[in-house]
Amino acid sequence: MKLTDLRALPEHYIALGPILKPYGTTGDFIVDSFPETALDDFIFIEIEGIKVPFEIEELVDRSGQVVVKISGVDDVETAERYRGCPAFAAPGEQHDQTQDESRDYRSLLGWRVYSAGDDAYLGVVERYDDSTANVLLSVRSDDGTEHLLPWVAEWVVALDEEHHILRLTLPEGLLG
Questions:
Q1: Which residue of 45, 66, 138, 160 lies most exposed, with the fewest beta carbons within 10 A?
Q2: How many Å apart are CA 168 and CA 153, to the nearest integer?
Q3: pLDDT tens column, 75-102
Q4: What values do phi and psi take at 145, rounded to 5?
C-alpha cells in the first residue's frame, strides 16, 4: 500500500468556536453551539493545527451553550488542556464512503505502530472506523490499552510494507 492510496481528510468542517471552559468535575467542557446539521458522534479539536477527532459520550444544551463529554477526558485538569482550542464538527455528507476506499484501511490491520519521535511501540492496528470524516485506527498495546488514532497523512513518517510497520509523529497529549 502506498501513502497516496489513502483517503485524505475532508477540508470542510462546521466551526463550533473555541472550547470555552471545563464544566463540572468529570471532564466535560462548554462550546458555544453544536448545530443539528452536524453529526453528533465526534467532535474535532484542533491541536497544533490538526483537527483530532474525539468520540462524544454526551451532548447537553445548557441555555444556548453546549456541554460536551468526550471519551478519554474524565477530569477537570485534562479538560482544561483543551480550553481555547478551536472545535469543529463534520457535516453528514462527508461520512459517505465506498467499499473501495475502506479496503485501503483494511490492509493496515495487524500492522505494528511506533511513535516516530521516541520510537516507542504503541501496539497493533486492531480495527479501523471509517464512519466519520476522520478515519480512526484502533491500536491495541501489549497491556491491552486501546489508542484511537486519527489517520492523518501528515503524521505518517514511514510505511514499511515489507515488515508491516507504521511510524507516526503524534501531537503531544494525544495518548493521554
A1: 160
A2: 9
A3: 999 999 999 998 888 765 443 333 334 4
A4: -70, 135
Question: Are the C-beta atoms of 31 and 66 separated by less than 8 Å?
Answer: yes
pTM (2 decimals)? Answer: 0.50
Q: Give the whole-angstrom CA distance, residue 140 versus residue 124.
A: 5
Amino acid identity of 53?
P
The C-alpha angle 5, 45, 16, rounded to 5 degrees, equals: 115
Q: Are strands 42-47 and 86-89 parallel, antiparallel or unpaired?
A: antiparallel
Distance separating alpha carbons of residues 118 and 29, to the nearest angstrom: 31
Question: Rounded to an integer, what distance in angstroms lies between the CA atom of residue 157 and that of residue 62?
Answer: 42
Q: Do 83 and 29 meet the contact criterion of CB atoms below 8 Å apart?
A: yes
- How far apart are the C-alpha atoms of 62 and 30, rounded to whole Å? 9
By the 8 A CB rule, do 147 and 123 touch? yes
- Output the CA torsion sign for 70, 71, 72, 74: positive
**Are 91 and 12 in contact, with CB atoms under 8 Å apart?**
yes
At residue 48, the pLDDT reads 83
**Whole-angstrom Cα distance, residue 86 to residue 100?**
32
Lookup result for grid cell 478519554 = 72
